Amino acid sequence: MPAVTSVLKALSNPNRRKVYQLVCRRAGRRSRGITIEDLCKASGMKQPAVSHHVARLAAAGLVSRRKSGWWVYCAPAPGGMEALARFVRDPAGFAVK
Predict the structure, then answer these.
(1) What is the pLDDT of residues 61-86, one digit of tens each?
(2) Residue 95 maps to a domain
(3) For the chain, how many structural domains are there in total?
(4) CA distance linking residue 70 with residue 68, whole number of Å
(5) What CATH number should be reported for the domain holding residue 30?
């Protein structure tokens, strides 16, 4: 499970938040997820920037990536927001690491 700090750092960038929101919105409609190409079209960002943001989101445990042929499919990672949700529900009782 991702640490709260890494999730907050990953989501502190507005462009990264936009990419994460697009992944969450669009991946649910597709069984495979959303491609980097589709993220580029939807966000208006270039491929290197989107790939960088997806890599940072994946490192924080928020996005999973799967390569199929030429395409990289992105989907929300299961449990990616759990630590943050627990912290928001009960900040006083959350164990700080």
Answers:
(1) 999 999 989 999 999 998 888 888 88
(2) no
(3) 1
(4) 6
(5) 1.10.10.10
Residue 90 lies in a domain: no
CA distances for 72 relative to 59, 64, 66, angstroms: 16, 10, 6
DSSP code per residue over 28-83:
TTSSS-EEHHHHHHHH---HHHHHHHHHHHHHTTSEEEEEETTEEEEEEPTTTTHH
| Residues 47 and 40 sit within 8 Å (Cβ to Cβ) | yes
The Cα 12–Cα 15 span in angstroms is 9
In a domain? residue 96: no
pTM for the full model? 0.87
